[in-house]
Amino acid sequence: FFLPEQVESLVQAALECEAWEARQGGLLASAEAVRTWDRPNFRSALLKEVPRLLVDKEYRVRKAIAVVLEECCQRDSLAIYDALSEVVLGDIRDKFSRVVDVGEADPASPPTFLPDTEGWRSLETSMGALEAMMKGCGSTFTPRISEEMLDLLSQCSKHTNRFVREYAYFALGNVFDVCAAPAFIEWVAPRTVGIIAAGIRDNWSQVRYAASVAARSFMLKAADEKHRFYPELLGLMCLNRHYVAEGVRLYSQETWRTVCGPQGGARLLVANFDPVIDAYAEAARAPNHAVREAGCHCISELAQRIAGRPSNPTPHREHFTEVRIERLLQTLLGAFEDESWPVRDVASMALGHFILAFPDRCMAHRPKLVDLWFEQMADNIPSLRRNGAKALTMAMSVWRESLWDTVFQRLKNTLPEVQLQPENSEVFSDYTPSGPFSVPRKALQLGDKPDPAVTDQSMYSCGSFAPKTFKRRVRDSGCMNCSTDQPQQLWEASEGMVHLFVDLAVLAAQQPTGTAADDGLDALAALLPLLAKAYGCSQYRHHYLLKQKVCERMTQLTEALTPRRLLPHLPELLRITHTCFTQDSHRALQESAREVIVAWRCNFTTENWETACRTAEIKPEALPRT
Predict the structure, then answer these.
(1) Are 194 and 153 in contact (CB under 8 A)?
(2) Count of CB atoms within 10 A of residue 148's CB?
(3) Interatomic CA distance for residues 380 and 478, integer angstroms
(4) Distance CA 616, CA 135 (A)
């Protein structure tokens, strides 16, 4: 083992070395030495080195200072802060504006693009040092919380460098943790609530997470007075429960449960409804696609979980006035034409839930919605095609009499379009997104030049670029807003109709037995020859994908139409399914076809099954049983 004198002398020598690794190691070792032996003279010697190392050329050395300061403040509390506050706060003020050293860049030819995170020297690490001292001092730090400090943290929370903003919000969280409750309620909370609201809207996930940590500390410290700050924070906190970054999302969900308690948040949302709707509407127009998606999720929740249906209203339904409903609908209609496909996807389903909740209020938008849903069912994105059919079926459950003829005719016309599909078909996997869940762009090939519009530009977390136009362009073909328009894939339009076919059949089967339900099922059964022709098309590259979707949904279709209606068309459907099962190029399709055949064996009588096999010229014993 080592004696404290030995370790301390080695640390002092390391802090004087030219190699940054030695200086960093010396600081980390000194923190362990303080934690283990806690010798006051050694702490005093360390603190003399802080002003020099705080502005060290190496980032990792500067960052290690925070570890030492936290350990020292845990022991000497405000004495450490008082001795070093001018140094730390002064460095933050001095480095707040970007400075490029002459040795780092030629003043005669400055760089055309400098990332937001470069050129700030010790600003970020000095913010970390300030946060560490607050954390080390704990509750004794309350007397040092001043207007001047909050002004400085407010400025840092708006800084261009996202790491500085992140540290600012962690520091604010520490301010809330250590602040005495009376002082917090009297002046700290009113002074900082707007800063927190801005932070949990930040476009960088790391900053949003740090602000979410501060928001939880804010609400816990506010305790019984937290309702005073709901108008500014509640809607934004609810919004982050659906944010794409998992850390932000899970942390915000836990915060929501903590703040709202076992009664849930519905009562709080409607009590602050207008500010909440403002927050959701603003999010749906944000420059970050992930924020727009989260906004649509929250608006969907209002209809699905808070309003209820006319036949089964919730106690909160009375808060949904005509003006509020129309504003939410207009927000979703705008999002339904967003350039980012996940935003369109969520907005589509949200509109379906709004129709179930407020059918009369939505009726004026019915023609436009039907057109948008049919466009969505021909989109390049598989989930959009699936959810477009689901949303339209939700509308059909309310407006069946008004929409049946229109929807049925368009289904009948579009289902066989795959027969016209050229050989060189395309799928979404042929594209690469500009970021997760962002706007798809054609994959670059070897030798291609990158698009200057998205090169060396400011970028938000999750890969989304700085503000741009959000509405899709009006064009003659294509179903996504990307820089290169692509012809609509006919096989994808037919796949969307397969989903609509099955969903309508399931909806009709769920209706009370009677003439209307039977007529609907009979009409859909009459389209089975068209389905079989689309199912059997193999002239294009991606035919196996459409076949797999048909197989995946065939069991539902059989149950909805009943074996009696499917029986006349079983031989042709069985022949195609048997072909899918016997091929060995696409294993997923093979497995889906096997499941369909096994299900059909159970659904049809032995006599009908064997007759269908003979008609299809298939030996029954060659087909799988399990």
Answers:
(1) no
(2) 9
(3) 9
(4) 77
The predicted structure's pLDDT at residue 261: 94
Q: Pick from 543, 545, 541, 603: which is nearest to 574 by CA?
A: 603
- The burial class, CB within 10 Å (0-12 / 13-18 / 19+), for 346 is buried
pTM: 0.85
Residue 105 has pLDDT above 60, yes or no: no
Q: What is the secondary structure of 233-288 as a DSSP string?
A: HHHHHHHGGG-SSHHHHHHHHHHHHHHH-TT-SHHHHHHTHHHHHHHHHHHHT-SS
Name which of 603, 609, 407 is nearest 524 in CA terms.
407
Measured at the CA of 128, the angle between CA 122 and CA 129, to 5 degrees, comes to 85
Instruction: Using the structure block, give the residue that is written with the tokens 């706007």.
Output: 439
Share of the chain above pLDDT 90, in %: 82
- Tell me the backbone φ, ψ of residue 442, rounded to 5 degrees: -60, 135
DSSP states along 25-85: HHHHHHHHHHHHT--HHHHHHHHHHHHHHTT-SSHHHHHHHHHHHHHHHHHHTHHHHHHHH
The one-letter amino acid at 110:
P
The pLDDT assigned to 457 comes to 57
* 3-class DSSP state of 442: strand
Kindly state the helix (H) or strand (E) to which residue 432 belongs, with its residue range: strand 431-433
- What the block records as the tokens of 16 is 């004087």
Please state the separation of Cα 58 from the chain's center in Å.
Answer: 36
């301390």: which residue's tokens? 8
User: 3-state SS string over 320-371?
Assistant: CCHHHHHHHHHHHHHHCCECCHHHHHHHHHHHHHHHHHCHHHHHHHHHHHHH
Q: Is the pLDDT of residue 438 over 60?
A: no
Q: Which residues pair with residue 308 across a beta bridge?
A: 313
Percent of the chain exceeding pLDDT 70 equals 87
Residues 6+ apart with CB under 8 A from 277: 235, 324, 327, 328
Q: Are 280 and 239 in contact (CB under 8 A)?
A: yes
Place of tokens 């209809």: 303
Q: Using CA atoms, how far apart are residues 371 and 474, in angstroms rounded to an integer?
A: 14
Dihedral (Cα; 539, 545, 546, 550), 10-degree rounding: 140
Amino acid residing at 588? A
Residue 138: closest CA among 84, 187, 74, 85:
74
Q: Using alpha carbons, select from 408, 416, 437 the residue that is nearest to residue 500.
A: 408
**Start-end of H helices in 415-514:** 490-510
10 Å CB burial of residue 594 (0-12, 13-18, 19+) is middle
Structure tokens at 204: 């960088």
The amino acid that residue 474 corresponds to is V
Instruction: Report the pLDDT value the prediction gives residue 120, as an integer from 0 to 100.
Output: 72
Cα–Cα distance for residue pair 440/464, rounded to 1 Å: 11
